[in-house]
Amino acid sequence: MIESVAMIGGTGNEGRGLALRWARAGIRVIVGSRDARRAMRAAQEIAQRAGGAAKVEGMENAAAAAASGVVVLTVPFEAQAATLKHIQKALRPGAVLISTTVPLAAAVGDRATRVLGVWQGSAAEQAAAFAPEGVKVAGAFHNISATLLEGEHEVDCDAIICTNDAGARQAANELARAVPGVRAVDGGALENCRIVEQITALLITVNIRNKVKHAGIRITGI
Fold first, then answer.
1. What are the structural domains of the chain?
2. Average pLDDT over residues 178-191
3. Torsion of CA 128, 37, 150, 85, to 10 degrees
4. CB of 98 within 8 A of CB of 125?
């Protein structure tokens, strides 16, 4: 059972939304940011919204990464490499690192409805390339709307989880199930994030075309 999760770049919309849902589920959440004060302010706000006995703390990114065996990376693609380099030494041996990052072309001033080519194949595979030996890497939560996560209702979306490690899959599955309405779907190997990450750009297009903010994806037949 997951007792704590560190959110690296947890002050952004996706990070705050996931942190809120997991705090409500009783998981200790450590919000990370480049600025420790900003992280603490965000943590206080999330705790107030989560209510009850929610346990939410704020720390600088490296300190947050060192404080938990499950680390979720929610930074934009343009910040991913630098952030990973910064937290490398803080990641525990055997830790699980889950990447939610999508290489949207907005990172280079282009449209968010397009994705960039990544040398390693996907943002999740780039995360694996920067992760220290012994850290288990998964890609998940790419296609879940931050707007839905920040809301009060169940989240009508599947979380497609891609990883080469059984332990990382188990952790990501547990986190997915902790969000009401979300179902964990086995998406196979980590390299399949090359496909899953691109779905986010498609969902952004669907949102724009249909004038909504919360398009998601469900896998049928399973």
1. 4-210 (3.40.50.720)
2. 97
3. -10
4. no
